[in-house]
Design goal:
By secondary structure, the protein is an alpha+beta fold. It has helices at residues 2-13, 44-48, 63-80, 100-108, 142-145, 174-187, and strands at 25-26, 28-30, 41-43, 53-58, 87-92, 120-121, 128-131, 137-141, 153-157, 163-167.
């Protein structure tokens, strides 16, 4: 009986205890250095100061990544015109066997098969994740922090660097696009 009383008390008190807020994380990664990338490096923190960011982990050999890129390209301009904008960034997921040239050929120019008009980043396996507040390097890499994501994986990051939504839907669909837009609206 005593155990039941303790459990009931814990359940009643659980609403009174404030959960620990998750600390945001950011990164700075090399880009393809195209006009769309706005320079040789992409800073998640700098971009979050303008609004939420939707990350798309991509791979050159990933059919779903190519289809997601094409699908997101149709919404990109509209999302960038929202206040605040919903920004996109693609992160090349397999740097150990896909070269910068491979990524540029597949996604980098208007002549590419799957042109990406938003920044494309090219991390290494060692690029660190950093604290949002002071950008202190942490022991985790970008890939480790995000759970060694497969491709394609989409993540919506709020303006504090906290992951608020994740999808690993291999092929794009209208339901997931609607979910992204709903999650964005919940953030602002």
């Amino acid at each position: 009986m005593r155990i039941i009383g303790v459990l009931v008390a814990l359940l009643m008190l659980s609403g009174c205890i404030n959960p620990v807020a998750e600390e945001g994380r950011v990164f700075t990664l090399q880009t393809l250095d195209r006009a769309e990338d706005s320079g040789p490096n992409y800073s998640l923190k700098d971009n979050l100061s303008q609004g939420p960011v939707l990350i798309l982990f991509i791979g050159v050999g990933c059919t779903g990544c190519k289809e997601w890129t094409d699908e997101l390209r149709m919404s990109h301009q509209e999302w960038m015109e929202m206040e605040p904008p919903l920004q996109l960034v693609s992160i090349e997921r397999y740097p150990s066997f896909e070269t910068h040239e491979d990524v540029a050929l597949e996604f980098g120019t208007p002549d590419s098969n799957h042109y990406t008009p938003w920044p494309i980043t090219l991390p290494t396996e060692e690029d660190p994740i950093r604290k949002y507040d002071d950008e202190t390097k942490l022991s985790s890499t970008v890939f480790e922090y995000y759970g060694m994501p497969g491709t394609p994986t989409l993540m919506l990051i709020d303006e504090n660097g906290v992951t608020q939504w994740e999808s690993s839907t291999y092929y794009p669909d209208q339901e997931t696009i609607s979910e992204i837009e709903t999650q964005y609206k919940d953030l602002i």
